[in-house]
Amino acid sequence: MGRQRITFRKKQPKKPQQAKSVDEIVKELKETGVNVSDYREQSLRIHGLICAKCGREFSAKDRRLLTVHHKDGNRLNNPPDGSNWENLCIYCHEDEHSRGLLGDYLRQ
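Given the sequence above, the corresponding structure tokens read:
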């Protein structure tokens, strides 16, 4: 019996989608319902002035150090109940986004 040679095909790159016009992008953003500036205030109201990761509490004076992290990574997914948001301090937010980069680097 001879050995079979297995060959793997490279995946063909997908054709880029046609670029959307500015008007289409603006219309899509308006249809999401929540303005980018509004969801931060909603999240702070719903979840309070506390970092969901380290537990540090912030005063009204220091609230600028709290950011809103989108759990699913989609900044356009802004449900009014806040289920896709968590308030993170700037340090924890940076850590959250750098974890994937570090993991990819260590796998190589």
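The longest strand covers residues 66-70. Try to locate this feature in the token string yourself.
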